[in-house]
Amino acid sequence: VSWAGLGYYGRARRLHEGAKYLVEHHGGDLPRDVDALQSIPGVGPYTAGAILSIAFGRRAAVVDGNVVRVFSRLKALPGSASSLSRQCWSLAHALVDPDEPGSFNQALMELGATVCTPLAPACDRCPVRSSCRAFALVSTGQGQAVTTFPEKSPKKSRRLRTLAVALVVDAEHRALLVRRPPSGLLAGQWEFPCVELADDDGGRSDDEVSERLRTFLRNVTARLPTLQFAKLVIPPVLHVFSHEEHVSHLYQAV
After folding, report:
1. Domain regions of the chain by residue span
2. In b/e form, how buried is each residue of 32-59, taking b as 16+ CB within 10 angstroms?
3. CATH match for 159-253 among 3.40.50.300, 3.40.50.11930, 1.20.1290.10, 3.90.79.10
4. What CATH code would you report for 44-148?
């Protein structure tokens, strides 16, 4: 689907868990305080603050990546976005408008999303430019660019995983699928059976890989006959995720 990989599977699952928790513990009504809200599965500080301020008009802070970027430039805070989280939450709590907290929070997030953007901030039309420490540093020649705030975190290299994927299709063209664990990457989704190969497994024979796949399948179901697998003579399939890359070699049951 077009939204695969965006985390919506997990969000839908947590939404369902949260709804059940609300019915069981709060009679279906959203609580009006931050601690009670954060006891709901899937609700953290950001969601709790958004609900309280936007839905109920309560004075509560909201901090997302956009807000961190705005504050880091407004105050010229040294450090990466991840290291500034606690500071930005303190700032947000201090600055949130007591009369219009929802409007304030939404305006702050929108400022970061549309004006104070990561790569091309529109400082010429920023409503808080006169108060922006990063802009002042650049204007007086003491700083290189507003975009140096927040500092860039060093990019982590993605973990490379090599997989042997079993294609088991019966005479009625039904394919064998297994369900992934309930947590972690692609939690609870269905996939073709697979085993992870070590980096040096690329030269393993079909017999060795077949035995590993058979061992995996025996732990899944006892209904299958003993299968032999042949590696398909096609390029491996590459799937790229945010923190991992999967290189899948396909093995057909014969």
Report:
1. 44-148, 159-253
2. eebeebeebebbebebbbbbbbbeeebb
3. 3.90.79.10
4. 1.10.1670.10
Over the stretch 73-132, which tens digit does the pLDDT of each residue have?
999 999 999 999 999 999 999 999 999 999 999 999 999 999 999 999 999 999 999 999
Residues in contact with 208: Cβ distance below 8 Å, sequence separation at least 6, in sequence order: none
Element (H, E) at 65: helix 65-74
Is the overall model pTM greater than 0.70, yes or no? no
3-state secondary structure of 238: strand
Backbone phi, psi, residue 246, to 5°: -110, 125
3-state DSSP call for residue 53? helix
